Amino acid sequence: MRPILMKGHERPLTFLKYNRDGDLLFSCAKDHNPTVWFADNGERLGTYRGHNGAVWCCDVSRDSARLITGSADQTAKLWNVQTGQQLFTFNFDSPARAVDFSVGDKLAVITTDPFMDVTSAIHVKRIASDPEDQVGESALILKGPQGRINRAVWGPLNRTIISAGEDATGKLLKENDPEVGHKKTITSLAKSVDGSHFLTGSLDKSAKLWDTRTLTLIKTYVTERPVNAVAMSPLCDHVVLGGGQDASMVTTTDHRSGKFEAKFYDKILQEEIGGVKGHFGPINALAFNPDGKSFSSGGEDGYVRLHHFDSDYFNIKI
C-alpha cells in the first residue's frame, strides 16, 4: 500500500467522489472550497470558490463536465469542472446536504436540513443541457422526515430515491424493517456499480448491505467504532468502513486509541480482512476509484490520503 498525503483543506473533510473515468478525485470539506485532484498522483488541479459555508457533498456528471455541490450556506451550486466557473446556484431556506445526479444527468436530487421552523426535505431539480436555460424551481419536493437526511441517491432507472439519515424518508414507497435496520443515525450510503445493492454506515457501530429494490437486509458488518463513511470495491468483494471516536473527544485521547483506520471486510463472509492506518482523527469520507486499484480517505484532520493497492491485496485469502 503506497499512501499519498494530500493537504488541500484547512478544515475536516466531509465527502470524496471520483469521476466515472477515475482520473479525477473531488473532495469537499468544512473550509468552503471543493477541490479537484489528479487521482493517480494526488496533485491538486484546482478549487471551486463561491460557497460561504461547509460543503457537505458533491457529485460529478457522467461526462465529467459538471460538478454539483451542497453547502451549509443554504445553496447548491452547479460548476464547470474544467474552468471552475459557477453555472447556477440553487437557493434554499435551510442548509443543503446531499446531492446526486440521476442516470443521464438530466435530474439532480438535493436534500435540505431541518432549520428553525423548516423541516428537512428532498428536492428534485431538472438540469438543463444549456446553463443559460437553467431554472431554480423544483420538479418535486418530498417532506416529512423528522431529522436530517444525510444521504439521498437515485434508485434504478431514476424511478425511486433512496435516502438515509436520522429518520426515515418522506412519501415512502418502502421502508426497511425496524428490527433489522440501524439503531442510530445513518451517516453514509454507497451504491454498488450496477446499482443492485447499497451499503449504509451508522453511528450504531455497524454497516449494512441492502437490496436496492426490496430494501431487504443482505449482510451486516460489525465494528467497534461509530461508522462515518463506507465504500464498496468495484473489483473485489470488499467493503471498507471508516470512522472512529467522536471528533469532540479526539483531543482527550491518544490517536492510537481513537481507532481511526479504514477497516476492510469481506463482503460475502462479513469478516474483517485488514486495515489501513494514517489519519490523526476520525475518517469522514471514503471512495474507491472506479478501476478498483486504489481508494481514498478523508479525515477530521483535514487530509486526503490516496492509497494505491499492492498486488498482494488482490490475492487476499480468508
UniProtKB/TrEMBL annotation:
It holds the Pfam family EIF3I. WD repeats lie at residues 6-47, 48-89, 179-220, 276-306. GO terms for cellular component: eukaryotic 43S preinitiation complex; eukaryotic 48S preinitiation complex; eukaryotic translation initiation factor 3 complex, eIF3m. It is found in: Cytoplasm. Keywords: Cytoplasm, Initiation factor, Protein biosynthesis, Repeat, WD repeat. GO terms for biological process: formation of cytoplasmic translation initiation complex. GO terms for molecular function: RNA binding; translation initiation factor activity. Component of the eukaryotic translation initiation factor 3 (eIF-3) complex. Component of the eukaryotic translation initiation factor 3 (eIF-3) complex, which is involved in protein synthesis of a specialized repertoire of mRNAs and, together with other initiation factors, stimulates binding of mRNA and methionyl-tRNAi to the 40S ribosome. The eIF-3 complex specifically targets and initiates translation of a subset of mRNAs involved in cell proliferation. Belongs to the eIF-3 subunit I family. Belongs to the WD repeat STRAP family. This is Eukaryotic translation initiation factor 3 subunit I. It comes from Malus domestica (Apple).
